[in-house]
TrEMBL record:
Keyword flag Glycoprotein: no
Domain of life: Eukaryota
Cofactor: Zn(2+)
Keyword Transferase tagged: no
Disordered as annotated region, ranges: 306-378
Database matches in Gene3D superfamilies: 2.40.30.130, Threonyl-trna Synthetase, Chain A, domain 2 (3.30.980.10)
InterPro entries hit by this protein: Alanyl-tRNA_Editing_Enzymes, Thr/Ala-tRNA-synth_IIc_edit, Transl_B-barrel_sf, tRNA_SAD
Domain Threonyl/alanyl tRNA synthetase SAD stretches: 190-233
Biased composition (Gly residues): 307-330
Protein name: Threonyl/alanyl tRNA synthetase SAD domain-containing protein
Family: Belongs to the class-II aminoacyl-tRNA synthetase family. Alax-L subfamily.
Ranges of Low complexity composition bias in the record: 331-378
Length: 378
């Protein structure tokens, strides 16, 4: 009877660079919950289940997609898209790009946490490997930029140091269990990962074989979190280059949009902000003037309507008011300005109505015109 290798001794944990493995299907059951997938256990695997802060691998078993992998007790359970025959010989293959990325981030975190603690007194209490960014959380206020710069420089110096990453194991000992070991693990082996003499930590994850494989680490920004803790965000390895490529692309787009080089972006944007502020001020002033004129035109329209039987005010926006000027000083120019304002701010149209002259200044349309200077510029 074929048995399954225990988590801790999986092939991917013994040789993190193995991409394929010929093995045997030990069991295959429909996944719980009627998801239409199948839970498969193999005699051994190069697919790592979620653990140690490292997300699971994906890949294929005999050409069938592995959608997820998780630890259940001491077994690695592969969630696959189609059933596999128990006892069948299969080749399992890991999605290497994803695994390599995970190893760079995870191993990079070991180095970052070790240097932060040993040389800067910043203890890592948790970490996260996200799809885009990673972070470590420290129980301290946000470090100053010069501290972060020195930390980043030291971490990259260690990476350039080309230290071997080694694994040693011992049998599980309940009287000496590592602090971070999941509570349900009470057997098997405990793995310790060493990076030269920089770091030694119990960890179940997959790691690079030499710290140089991490290539580099870039610290990004910090974020205060509850309890006075701070998260320090970072990326390692290929993610650094991807992030830089995305930044360069945005920089090229901005260069074209602003017609100036990156060294002038800040000055140019500050100029834009000043111009917008001035324009807003001018627009607000002109909108108020238009509103006052509209109110005056409306008032004039009401007066004329009262004298002519109520139809003269209808021409307020179209110049008909000219016939109703009736010798009232200024009412002619008011009707012309009202017409202009009506096309721009939309407020005077309401103001010109004979039934609601008082609504000019306080009408919703007038208020909208005031709060939306862009419409005046149209
Ligand atoms: Zn680790």
């Amino acid at each position: 009877m074929v048995t399954a290798a225990k988590v801790g001794e999986l092939w991917c944990q013994r040789d993190s660079h193995a991409r394929t493995l010929d093995t045997t299907v030990v069991s295959c059951e429909p996944s719980a919950g009627g998801a239409g997938t199948f839970d498969v256990v193999l005699a051994d695997s190069v697919i790592f289940p979620t653990g140690g802060g490292q997300p699971n691998d994906i890949g294929t078993i005999g050409g069938v997609a592995v959608l997820d992998a998780r630890r259940a007790g001491m077994q690695c359970v592969h969630v696959v898209a189609a059933p596999l025959e128990v006892g069948a010989s299969v080749t399992v293959e890991v999605d290497w790009e994803r695994r390599r990325d995970h190893m760079q981030q995870h191993s990079g975190q070991h180095i970052l946490s070790a240097i932060a603690q040993n040389e800067f007194g910043l203890n890592t209490i948790s970490w996260s490997l996200g799809k885009q960014l990673c972070c470590i959380e420290i129980p301290a206020a946000e470090p100053k930029q010069d501290v972060l710069d020195k930390l980043e420089a030291r971490v990259n110096e260690v990476i350039r140091g080309h230290h071997d990453v080694t694994i040693d194991t011992r049998d599980h000992d309940e009287s000496d269990r590592p602090e971070k070991l999941p509570g349900d693990i009470q057997e098997g082996i405990v793995r310790f990962i060493s990076m030269g003499n920089i770091d030694r930590n119990p960890c179940c994850g997959t790691h690079v074989k030499n710290v140089a494989e991490v290539q580099c680490i870039k610290l990004l920004h910090t974020e205060r979190v509850r309890g006075g803790n701070t998260r320090i965000f970072f990326v390692a390895g290929d993610r650094v280059f991807k992030l830089m490529q995305a930044s360069l692309l945005r920089e090229r787009q901005l260069t074209a949009l602003m017609s100036t080089g990156p060294e002038n972006f800040v000055d140019r944007v500050e100029g834009f902000k000043r111009n917008i502020k001035d324009l807003m001020k001018t627009t607000k002033k002109q909108t108020k003037e238009l509103k006052d004129l509209a109110a005056a035109a409306a008032a004039a329209g009401v007066a004329v309507a009262g004298a002519s039987g109520g139809d003269a005010g209808q021409g307020g926006g179209k110049g008909k008011g000219g016939s109703a000027n009736g010798g009232k000083p200024g009412s002619g120019s008011s009707s012309i300005d009202s017409s202009k304002a009506g096309r721009g701010s939309r407020a005077p149209a309401a103001a010109a109505g004979p039934d609601s002259p008082a609504s000019a200044a306080g009408s919703p349309a007038a208020a909208e015109a005031e709060s939306q200077p862009a419409s005046v510029r149209e």
